[in-house]
Amino acid sequence: MSVGEGADARAAAAVAVAAVLGEGRTLEAALAALPPGRLAPEQRAQAQALAYGTVRWLPRLQRVGAKLVQRRWEDHSPRLQALLLLGLYQLEYAQVPPHAAVSTTVEAAKLVGEGRAAGLVNACLRRFQREREALLAHADRSLAGRTAHPQWFVDAFVRDWPAQAAAMLDADNAHPPLVLRANARRISTAALAERLAAAGHATRPVPFAPRALVMEKPVDVRRLPEFVEGLCSVQDAAAQLAVPLLACEPGHRVLDACAAPGGKACHLLEETPELAELVALDVDPARAARIRENLDRLGLAATVTVGDALADDWWDGRPFDRILLDAPCSGTGVIRRHPDIKLLRRPADVGPLAERQRRLLAALWPKLAPGGRLVYATCSVLKAENADVVADFLRDTPGAAEVPESARLAAPLSPALPGRSGREAGAGPGFALLPGAADTDGFYYACLTRPT
Amino acid sequence: MTRLAILEYPDPRLRTRAQPVAHVDDELRKFVDDLFETMYAAKGIGLAATQVNVHKRVLVTDVSENHDQPLVFVNPEIIAKDCVGTMQEGCLSVPGYYEDVNRAQKIRVRALGRDGQPFEMDAEGLLAVCIQHEIDHLDGKLFVDYISELKRTRIRRKLEKEQRARADAPARPRQPAL
């Protein structure tokens, strides 16, 4: 008997990476679209790890790949590009014996219909083994190559965060930790840590996010009884700041305007059970269904509404005491979790995203009760989507003000809170958590209020 | 040790029913060594004597990644089965094809070891599936017998085509000089 020596997993990874390169699909969608049943679960896990690693380092590997082929890199099919990049990734980064990396990738070429290029794949990968140092030195001449980012990301990070950019670029390539959020209604953070420890899962707390536990080793949460039973959720520590910043009180009516998949809405309900109502709004019905799934798992209730936060047709006219606007953004703060953002996001995307963020803020503002609070959040690290949006809004909206204690709210977080130097440098309203400062995703928060 | 040639589906010799081994002697032990050599070289996790055109009830397995769990089964018999489940199987006699097969995921097997001594052992998961897959070989059965006729025919045609292509290859060192 034989088991797929890994060629099947390589073939699957190459197909997924090619879908990102050629069709602009997200890696998550491309992996989910792999034919079910073709791969054993462990092969699927292997394919996923290989695809993520390849995409994470792709801008660096592509500079090497371009040196290895005769024709222009762009003239090769996305599948062949993906195969070469996958092979290079394994040789440079993965814990795979080099001979296995080469032979399985050559086999994978045959499996995905690039059999005629199997010789080319073999020759390129073997040449990389021989000339590795020179080829990498070529790729690493620029900061963009060395840190495996498209040049425009490097330019944008350096422009917005000159002192922090290098650490941010490095942090984007780190493997993100799995972070849990204890369900405050059901269990204390310490008790959850004890339960996990008893099951052999070591965790550590996060100083500025009291419900957060960082898993020391990754685990499939769907196999954690604590997750299945609704004692905890998966949420990065940076995302766990939205709820304390909202500071909801019993009896409040709250809107989560772009709520899917519902992580922050659930967190809010866990912390403040006696809300009058939480409206969890999302424009996408399929994603709104994810909100319901998460609520059900955690045993929470909210008014899940499908609707566009830019429109009014879903609104009953009653104002909200608190509004969370976790706005759609470039995702430049969560590259470590979604490395395909490096490939899928284009410089021209930022302008329209910022325009949409401004319109969302303007559309939601009238729905905020006098004296209420709106928290604007993104998982972007670009000022064009963050401080610029909020500063312009404050300038153009009479009565709108940054919550005076916004800085005070952030202060308890300050020992570990990254991005403060940016704030101190007059970076505008709100505060940013930057990748590379405290092992969190990159996030931006601003707390706004309208006068009574 | 010698690396043996592996028969490829649809070679009719794979349908031969193997005969029980009467004595575990040095000759058989040498054959077992050759089976391991052949299996490891082909990156297999199990190999039955039938697959190398020796029709004795002998099979070897090693499902470890580091080639450190070699097991020898002479005259193997499954005496208990439990927990049917699906696993993707491939076969050194059906190279390059992997299909889902339902089998018991837990078995108890009785056999003679390399030393000729009888033993019983419990196996589960990949090892359980592998032992059943190899015992099938000794009975002239292949994992493709469990999949749809459509898939089986497609695999057979593709393998026959490959085998013809190899036979027609310009260099013909293996042509018998009769």
What's the overall geometry of chain B?
A: globular
Q: Largest interface by residue count?
A: A-B, 10 and 22 residues
State the distance separating the first and last CA atoms of chain A. Answer: 75 Å
The CATH topology annotation of the largest domain in chain A reads as Rossmann fold
Task: Flag low-confidence runs of chain B.
Answer: 171-178
Oligomeric status: heterodimer
* Residue share in β-strands of chain B: 25-35%
Broad structural category of chain B: alpha+beta
Q: How many helical stretches of chain A?
A: 20
Secondary-structure arrangement, i.e. CATH architecture of the largest domain in chain A:
3-Layer(aba) Sandwich
Protein architecture, described:
The complex is a heterodimer of chains A (452) and B (178). By secondary structure, chain A is α/β, with parallel strands linked by helices. Chain A has 20 helices and 12 strands. The longest helix of chain A has 22 residues, at 118-139. The N and C termini of chain A lie far apart (75 Å). By secondary structure, chain B is an alpha+beta fold. Helices cover 28% and strands 30% of the residues of chain B. Chain B has a 5-stranded antiparallel β-sheet with strand order 1-2-3-4-5, sandwiched between helices. Chain A binds chain B through residues 1-5, 8, 37, 39-40, 43, and chain B through 42-47, 61, 87-92, 95, 98, 100, 126, 129-130, 133-134, 143.
